[in-house]
Amino acid sequence: MILEVCCGNLESVHAAVAGGAPRIELCSALELDGLTPSWEDLKAARAQYPALKIHVLIRSRAGDFCYTPAEVQDMSAQIEKALELGADGIVLGALTPKGDVDKAAVQAWMDVISDWMLAKGLEAGGCHSSMDAYFFQGLVKKPSVTFHRAFDQVRDPFGALEEIIGLGCGRILTSGQAPSALEGAPLIRRLREKARGRIGLLPGGGITPDNARAILDLTGCEQLHASASVMEKGRKVTSAALVSAILAC
What we know:
Blueprint (H helix, E strand, L loop, with lengths): L1 E6 L2 H10 L3 E4 L12 H10 L4 E5 L11 H16 L4 E4 L10 H23 L4 H4 L10 E4 L9 H11 L3 E4 L10 H11 L4 E4 L8 H8 L3 E4 L2 E4 L2 E4 L1 H8 L2
Parallel strand pairs: 1-2, 1-8, 2-3, 3-4, 4-5, 5-6, 6-7
Antiparallel strand pairs: 9-10
Helix pairs in contact: 1-9, 3-4
């Protein structure tokens, strides 16, 4: 089992690593369901933990997931910045007012990632044109892309699944459109079965040491996403003990 720990601050990153987490989702403002993290936290996490897989949430504001063209452009710049600072993956998502995947917004962000890879291919290979860069893309590891829990608000989860696969995302973070992943486990399993290995399903929402094994068994998934947090001085902070306990399930 792989556990991805949602970390809203650098203190939580330290705790996640101490608890044995191999991967984190770095963000800020967990009380707002997560926003783009500070670049200072990303720089520090990358410098201190070079082997840690760091996926960065890109979400410029709280509220709904229906973004204006200006907001899409702003988050495009944030994606590029996160990759430049060493993010291994990007966590993103956008919806239309009708509750469908905003394919135009997500495609724009996927294009930013592709363009970044081409630029790095040029740089790594010492080549001089974008066509040459295709021969050197193997020198640049493709960033992982997760469609986040905006998925839990889509009106047609199976239709959205196909659209997200078509956009090139590598996994979907979801509670199965329920208050918790345990309650949403039946839908998560059906989504995983329909995906047939074309995309990963990452159960998240209410994961604890007491239910982690049940969620894995019910969904057939091999990865979980949890904050594994406790309240300290009015904010959520990851607990190394909780991380370790979930991994032991």
